[in-house]
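Batch job 17 of 40 flagged for manual review because the log was empty.
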Amino acid sequence: MIASLLVGVVKLLAGPSVRWAGCAPERRQRIYFANHTSHLDAIVLWSSLPSDVRARTRPVAARDYWTKDRLRLYLSKEVFNAVLIERQKVSAENNPLEALLKALDEDSSLIIFPEGTRGAGEEIQPFKSGLYHLARKRPAVELVPVHIDNMNRILPKGEVLAVPLLSCITFGAPLRLADDEAKPAFLERARTALAGLKLA
């Protein structure tokens, strides 16, 4: 019930139009990777999925942000079923990749932001290596680029109050890691595919 209410609020606030430009909204296991310009990105992308797909899709989120207060902790755990990862104290014993692989092995789909941090919305930043490692370790999982347009204006970085505007979510064609494809080449190919979905 809370999830349905939240989806309704997001649609009123961000008015996302959803375009499936390179794939269809199916229940198959996927990693949706998107550009990141706002704290609302994960919520808007998650809300734009059909309910049956949404039910098995888990946003990947920073533990330090989503555990700051009771509301965020409740939403992350009870509503989004988010995979919370460390970004401050990463080590061999505390590798965020392990939590993502575990979620994939439980047949969840994931929403990730390969830039690693929010940008200004003007240009997609270089990708961190996580997407490559997931693609290499779980090659059967589809990698779907998702471009989120205009969220940097609805809730810009550094702001706490959202401004109701229209946004657009564009799902592109799935990618896979090619045989013997080097990490830099793959990450740049994935970034280019994502950037290519931006509305003119």
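Reviewer: the log was empty due to a logging misconfiguration, but the result itself is present. Residues 2-57+102-195 form one domain. Unflagging and moving on to job 18.
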